[in-house]
Amino acid sequence: MSFELVEPDSLPAALALLDPEDPGVRAIAGGTALMLMLKSGFFRPRRLVSLRRIGDGMSGIRASAEGGLVLGAMARLRDIERAPAVWQRAPVVVETLRVHSNIRVRNVATIGGNLAHGDPHMDLPPVLIVLGAHLTATGPGGSRTIAAEDLVSGYFETVLGNDELITEIAIPPQGARRAAYQKCTTRAADDWPALGVAVSLGLEGAAIREARVAVGAVTDRPVRLRETEALLRGGAVGESLWREAGEVAAREVEPVGDDRGSALYKRQLLRVAMRRALAQAAGAAG
Amino acid sequence: MSGVRQVGRSLPRLEARAKVTGAAEYVHNLHLPGMLHGRIFRSAVPHAEIRALDVKAARAVAGVHSVVTIDDIRTVIPDPYYGPAFHDQPILAEGKVRHVGEPVAVVLAEEAKTAEEGCRAIAVEYGELPAVYDEVEAARSAVHVHDALKPAGAFPDLQHLAGRRATNVALDFHLRRGDPEGAFAAAERVFEHTFRSQQVMHTPLEPHVSIAEASGSGITIHTSSQSPSFVRSEIARLLGWPENRVRVRTAYLGGGFGAKVYVKLEALAAALALLAGRPVRIALTMDEQFFTISRHATTVHIKSAVDRDGKITGRQCRVYWNGGAYADIGPRVAQKSGFTAAGPYDIANVAIESCEIYTNRPPAGALRGFGVPQLVWAYESHTDLIARALGLDPVEFRRRNLLREGRPQATGTKMRDAALHQVLERLATHIEWERPFDRGTPLRRRGRGVAIGFKASIAPTTSVAIVALAADGSATLYCSTVDMGQGSDTALAQIAGEVLDIPAERIRVAHPDTEATPYDMGTLGSRSTYHMGQAVRRAALEVRDKLAALAGELGLPPGSNLPIPELFRRKYGMAAGNLIGSGSFMPSYAPPDPLTGQSPDATPYWMSAAAGAEVAVDTETGQVTVERLVLVADAGTPINPQIVETQLSGAAIMQFGFTMQEEMVFEDGQLRNPSLADYKIPGLRDLPRRIEVETVDAVERDGPFGAKGVGESGTYAVSPAIANAVEDAVGVRLNELPLKAEAVWQALAADRGGR
Q: CB–CB of B718/A237 below 8 Å?
């Protein structure tokens, strides 16, 4: 396989090397997903634009003044997992990363690459959705902001232009909201999820003031479950509500079966994982 | 002289330091001057005629040396078909492909990457043929994988199969003892079940690699092989050369598990080196191993007659081994493990039919247990089901039926030094079977299960060893046993050291090189400790006798403790000379009757092991967590107790993967998961929290210092022990491996009347 590998040393140079029309031209960051596609012959690039040399300026992990987090797109998963600011402000991200993939992958994979890949079988997208995260995408015409839940438009498809790069991920202040992620794997502990459920709850005493719920790996893209959220909003914390939410969630999406589980089984996993994620979030320290 | 016993020491492996410092030799790291790299172009379809193979564009790729097809191979190897039991496998596809991933052509290039690029430029036109994938279906199918059977000439017991046409049954083994029909007619209860196991891969972390170079009048093959002596004779046969012109050498292996027995890449590498006139390296990727060799998917129908007292009076087994497109050692698996298909039980009336079946899947051969784990999976699941149906305690039911010393096994061979009862009793004690057990909660129900299995040693096989004592008193052991991680170098050095009274650390074990190390049948089937151990012991005894004779010749009184270097100095006048001893070992054996499978001497020794599993089942998702796995084995008297323990735990972990996760998933003959990203071997987070192993206090009288083989024993009983524990926990019986959470959940949902 012969292709061109370029290693620009600035973001504008990288953007200039991308091609809005040619799917054979792609950016490569950590490469953990892309290399599998290359090895299997699934993807035959014409040009790979390595972001290696521009990584330093885009890998910051910092606490924002308002109480949120700003993650550079080239930040490695393992660095995010170990950053005290992330621990303090969005512990669910740390918990998710710990079960995300094996440590060798976490050591090289970047958060921007992870999201831009558009893989429906990923752990972070539903988590970022319930945290209300926004991404900054930069292209030749400048930058724009995309809500995490709007990023993935279909099976391995995103709203990003082929000449756009994710440059930053902003997680807003979570206040007293509590989040949890339940990952189900069926082939091995270290695997892509058969299903992942992320929830975030804003509580007022025993009442739920605000709820966000998203699932990954169950359909062709990570999805937010608005009916389940509506059920939860205003409800009373407790097992019976969690159980009902599981039933509503199981009705709200039409699961797609894959090598990790049939549609029928995924529906059951959704029911169970939803209940458990809600119980975990409600029980978690604020 | 050490004065310290060498046998029974938990000596760390002799090569441990070299391995952790990266100094140990592996063929994978060998690069020869002028070496070409070969990359295999593989079939994309499961069964087809090759209508056209166009390699012109590949030849034109810059840096490509040549592209080789079977027509080229034939110019150096006129009959390019190989295999240990059947000569059915072409070095490269000829006219037809029979499984996805079958080698069709090879691109040779200065660099591996260029060869890969060349492969992409090959165009092939296939005329697809109907194909057959399931072993039971294939046994009766009108679709045939081969036109005629081609058993290897060396085996008289296979000759009746030669030329048999219109069949996918490569070999059918039959065993008959007593009056099975009568037993079933007279039975109080009859039980019948079917169990299936899936195709899995060996996954040695060092994939297959062979490097061949023409050398003077001969050829040298450096290869990651478990059976260098076999490779030598098979390559000599293919080339029509005397064996002494073929030199085969190995180094340490990064795992073998049966993947590297017999010929794998060696015939191809040899032909390529002769064609190219340069050394050629063929190194597989991890992914290519899936298409090279695997463990049989298996279907076992098992039926038992039981009397009023809970004694099994009759058993009938029909075993279908999915051998894939080429027989490899599958026919021997069907026979030599097939005769244990009824289990380690004292059953007067037995009928076994065990068939090796060709299908359009990648070939299957031997994988840590030589078929035994698939059989134990069936008979120990079946045994548990019977015990439950009879309301008998599973340990007690086994105790009642287990073979005792001196009793005839299904072949008629009497059990000898088989500590089956001891193994079962120690297991029951270890896991406190008699004590109450915590059954968990409704959402997380706990259960436990036991299973016991046994295996015969493959017979008859031969090992030869040479021990050379140098004038400084150091000794070198020359043998063709391959240390593939199982610790044979250390154990064999301990045996030689014990005889010679030299610390094992001071004995050098030369690695297999057929130009220097003598014949050994192969490092397989848990045979090395017993067979090579005896050959080494004999060789060392001969050296010891020669030392005593030398002392006598020098006029020393018997029992003189003069240091060895001094003896040499007195004899030769300086530090010079060698004392050389050789030993060879082949146990007795009586071939089975071709019609009844009966033999008074079917195996030199029996290996046995029991497993106990404690599981927790998530009743909402079906997820099974194995919390504790206990292995108890009869290894005779361990030469190196520490290595025996790690062999047992390692084998148990491997079988744990085959039980819970690993599976080659096929769809229309295409492998859906040919990479470690999707074929999931166990990681640390998958393992049982507790894995405990022990050996019973036993002696194998004919083994070296009471020892016998143990490399596979940890695999036997793991799968059924876990499945039995799952049933104990949630009342769900799975008849198919791997034990998937979804299957448990489905069965639970069905129990509840469905969702």
A: no
